[in-house]
Design brief:
Rossmann fold, 13% strand, globular, binds 5-phosphoarabinonic acid
């Protein structure tokens, strides 16, 4: 049996006593009960809790559709924003080659759109797509979000002109609400194949639904192994009331105790660029779930050792209002040994024969010690390796920890009322019908 990811709190121990973490984790079993019994805030959004088992019967269809897209195209554009694209991108980036465009071997390329409104980005994308045989997966739970809706309008028009309406319809998959929203109507009118996002699963908790799994399967990764990892994590988190062996309860409790010690910024640290988008996904999950009612920990992220040469200075010596959560990966699946050089002109022969990952590990240990000396508590998440199984574990681990943490903070971790504020202003400024009054007021303010 594979070992599980685990939490190591010794480098946070100087700042939060271990007994206090265990005590809060034990008290937080009631939050786990509230999740399991559906008695807490936001209890109409708990579908993700049992997803690892529930999704099993959809995997065959997801794989079938993925196979179809791979057979009719060489590129798939995933259109979505926030929870409708970050999970897929996090997993695909973590598990794919670092330089996909330069690979000589034949592979299916995944590109993204609808997560910005940048004219450069869309124009450049269209330029690339001119020479590609591409498909589209358009994802929007509400079916009305402006960014993906705009990108889809533009790309649908491009694809239809390129391959004709009927072929385009065969290459467009829509993932949206089962009955509501403009995307559902569009899909029905045009005869697109569709997947539904269950009502009780919010965007940022949807990576283990077709929202995440279809693009991941199209990229060629093993979605069954991801789900298997999530199921293994469900056993030791959701189904485990022993606080001292439940990594999600320990993590949620530790970060809240650190918050009480005056550190309101949590930096997720990875020592591989492959995890960059996992951090982006994590930031959305925690930022949208906890940042409300004047509460919450601000989620930030860095990629080390890259950012040790930029933000490292601040983390070491700047204002002491932050802590780190480090994803420590034990094994690298690729091997690269440092060569020896006869005249040692760069004075690196002391490293000759060592693997690059060994040097990276020592950089990691050195950083933890230095940051501890700089009064930065460090929570460590030990991950045996970056593969489908452990990415599945990390996803479920972070999701359940986030829900428990939200309950510890006494907020509803499943809504995001603040996201509407910019949208209302944008619609008003763009003269969207229905926003005329608001538009007048805003224009007054801008005079
Ligand atoms: O987590 C969330 O609910 C949000 O980030 C949404 O995923 C995001 O706003 C996109 O919404 P939709 O899928 O409705 O287009």
């Amino acid at each position: 049996m594979k070992e599980n990811i685990s939490i190591d709190l010794k480098n946070a121990g100087n700042f939060i006593p271990h007994e206090e973490v265990i005590a809060l984790a034990q008290q937080s079993v009631r939050h786990l009960d509230a999740l399991n019994n559906g008695t807490g805030a936001g209890n109409d959004f708990l579908g993700w809790l049992s997803l690892p088992d529930q999704i099993l019967n959809q995997l065959e269809r997801i794989e079938h559709v993925a196979k179809h897209l791979r057979s009719v195209s060489d590129t798939t554009v995933v259109i979505g924003i926030g929870g409708s694209y970050l999970g897929a991108k996090a997993v695909i980036d973590a598990l794919s080659h670092s330089f996909p465009p330069y690979l000589k071997t034949k592979h299916h390329q995944i590109l993204y759109a609808g997560h910005n409104i940048c004219e450069y980005y869309m124009s450049d994308l269209i330029e690339i797509l001119e020479g590609r045989n591409y498909s589209i997966i358009v994802i929007s739970k509400s079916g009305t979000t402006t960014e993906p809706a705009l990108a889809f309008r533009i790309l649908k028009d491009h694809l239809e002109r390129k391959v004709g309406k009927a072929t385009a319809a065969d290459r467009i998959i829509a993932i949206t609400d089962s009955s509501k929203g403009a995307l559902r109507s569009l899909a029905e009118t045009n005869g697109y194949d569709t997947f539904s996002i269950p009502d009780n699963i919010g965007g940022r908790y949807s990576v283990l639904t077709p929202v995440g799994l279809l693009p991941i399967a199209v990229s060629g990764l093993d979605i069954r192994m991801i789900v298997k990892g999530a199921i293994a994590m469900e056993e030791v988190t959701r189904k485990n009331k022993n606080a001292s062996t439940n990594p999600s309860l320990l993590y949620a409790s530790a970060r809240n105790l650190i918050l009480h010690s005056g550190r309101a910024i949590e930096i997720l640290v990875g020592f591989t660029p492959r995890l960059h988008y996992l951090s982006e996904w994590w930031k959305q999950l925690y930022g949208e779930s906890e940042g409300k009612e004047g509460k919450g920990i601000f989620p930030a992220s860095v990629d080390f050792t890259t950012d040790l040469h930029s933000l490292g200075q601040y983390i070491q010596e700047g204002q002491r209002f932050l802590f780190e959560t480090m994803i420590s990966v034990k094994n690298s699946r690729k091997k690269l040994t440092i060569p020896s050089e006869k005249d040692d002109s760069d004075q690196l022969n002391y490293l000759a024969g060592k693997r690059l990952s060994e040097v990276n590990h020592q950089a990691e240990t050195g950083t933890i010690l230095a940051h501890n000396d700089g009064k930065v508590p460090v929570i460590i998440i030990n991950v045996p390796e970056v593969d489908e199984f452990y990415i599945g574990q990390l996803i479920y681990f972070f999701e359940i920890a986030c829900a428990v943490s939200g309950y510890i903070l006494d907020v509803n971790p499943f809504d995001q009322p603040g996201v509407e504020a910019y949208k209302k202003n944008m619609f008003a400024l763009l003269n969207k019908p229905g926003f005329e009054e608001a538009g007048k007021k805003l224009k007054e303010r801008l005079k």
